[in-house]
Amino acid sequence: MAAPFSFSERGATQAVEEGRTLSPKFDADGLVTCVATDAASGDVLMVAHMNAEALARTIETGEAWYYSRSRRALWRKGESSGHVQRVTEMRIDCDQDAVWIKVEQAGAGACHTGRRSCFYRAVPLGKAPDASLVLELREAERKFDPAKVYGKGD
Amino acid sequence: MAAPFSFSERGATQAVEEGRTLSPKFDADGLVTCVATDAASGDVLMVAHMNAEALARTIETGEAWYYSRSRRALWRKGESSGHVQRVTEMRIDCDQDAVWIKVEQAGAGACHTGRRSCFYRAVPLGKAPDASLVLELREAERKFDPAKVYGKGD
Q1: pLDDT confidence band for B76 (50 / 70 / 90)
Q2: Which residue in A35, A36, A61, B46 has a CA-CA distance of 20 to 30 Å to B38?
Q3: Does B137 contact A at CB distance below 8 Å?
Q4: Is B60–A130 a contact, with Cβ atoms under 8 angstroms apart?
Q5: Residues 41-70 of B with CB under 8 A from A
Q6: Which residue intervals of chain A are DSSP H helices?
Q7: Could A123 and B92 be called an inter-chain contact, meaning their C-beta atoms sit closer than 8 Å?
Q8: How many CB atoms lie within 10 A of CB A77?
Q9: More confident residue, A149 or B101
Q10: How high is the pLDDT of residue B4?
Q11: Which has the closest alpha carbon to B86: B131, B122, B36?
Q12: Beta partners for B34?
């Protein structure tokens, strides 16, 4: 398993944006944002965070590891549910504070609520938001029963 | 234009995850994460942030507004470049701290470096990251000259 690894120190903007060295910009909490999309459909499955260790383990193993802000713990996706994510490609953005992974999602879904994607509600557009705004369901049927799948959340 | 609007106060987890009221979870800086994907290709174009006003304006106008953390300012995407993003769909995630927008990207690209997407470099997988790691270019050719397009950045 990935040993603790110090990613490269960040150089000037030009080096970060145009260089070919991985030098992530971790925020004050030591995290980068990670977007996971379905390698087949392109849908966004979830947005989560990685600390340096989660990022290193994901790179080494080719399976998604995250850092749970609520549990304050390293988190192998699918650890309790079996719904692991095999990473087919990882990309880093221009200023290296966000990661995009394309994944093959094992099992019924990525979301702890039982849906395939965490993004199962749409926001209607074209009108200033007010108290009448009602979210619209999108592929919101449950694919699995979270109470049966999760021991301690995932 | 959207007047200052107070999004709903957040209720219990059940209401936030299963309800149809938009009650975003802004972080300590007053921001939610926003992922913009290309409505045609599904590619992730950029990851940015929205404060309450940017979110409200995006909902009202159907064009992407963000909040620039570096400039500490509300930011209409394409304001200086003309590379506006027309939002074809907005979704919110289970705990309502991340937004996914599908956009029609005007102009040559979304990235301030001149690429179509901010994610123009891939991280090789399958080996623990070390000093030998070299990012691989992906659709990294410049689509426009940022020096000519941007007055003050975008």
Answers
A1: very high
A2: A61
A3: yes
A4: no
A5: 41-44, 46-47, 55-56, 58-60, 62
A6: 13-18, 52-61, 146-149
A7: yes
A8: 24
A9: B101
A10: 53
A11: B36
A12: B48, B99
Scored b (16 or more CB within 10 A) or e, A39-60 reads beeebbbbbbbbbbbbbbbbbb
Select from B7, B35, B46 the Cβ nearest to the Cβ of A47.
B35
**Nearest-Cα residue of chain B relative to residue A132:** B21
The answer to whether residue A147 neighbours chain B at the CB level (below 8 Å) is no
Averaged pLDDT of chain A? 92
Tokens of A148: 């049966």
Separation between Cα atoms, residue B16 and residue B33, nearest integer Å: 17
- Cβ distance of B41 and A44 shorter than 8 Å: no
DSSP lists the bridge partners of residue B105 as B85
Can you tell me the distance from the alpha carbon of B75 to that of B77, in angstroms, rounded to the nearest whole number? 6
Retrieve residue A20's tokens: 């070919």
Poorest-pLDDT segment among A101-105, B84-88, B105-109, B120-124: B105-109
The ipTM, to two decimals, is 0.92
What is the band of B67 on the pLDDT scale with cuts at 50, 70, 90? very high
pLDDT of residue B5 exceeding 70 = no
Q: State mean pLDDT over A35-40.
A: 97
Q: Name every chain B residue with its beta carbon within 8 A of the beta carbon of A140.
A: none
Q: Which of A104-108, A137-141, B55-59 has the highest mean pLDDT?
A: B55-59
Q: Which residues pair with B95 in a beta bridge?
A: none
Q: Which two tokens stand for residue A32?
A: 């980068």
The span from the CA of B100 to the CA of B106, in Å, is: 18
The string over A93-117, giving b where at least 16 C-beta atoms fall within 10 Å of a residue's C-beta and e elsewhere, is bbbbbbbbbbbebbebbbbbbbbbb
SS3 call for B49? strand
Q: Name every chain B residue with its beta carbon within 8 A of the beta carbon of A5.
A: 128-130
Mutation site for B-interface testing, chosen from A9, A53, A57, A59 by largest number of B Cβ within 10 Å? A59
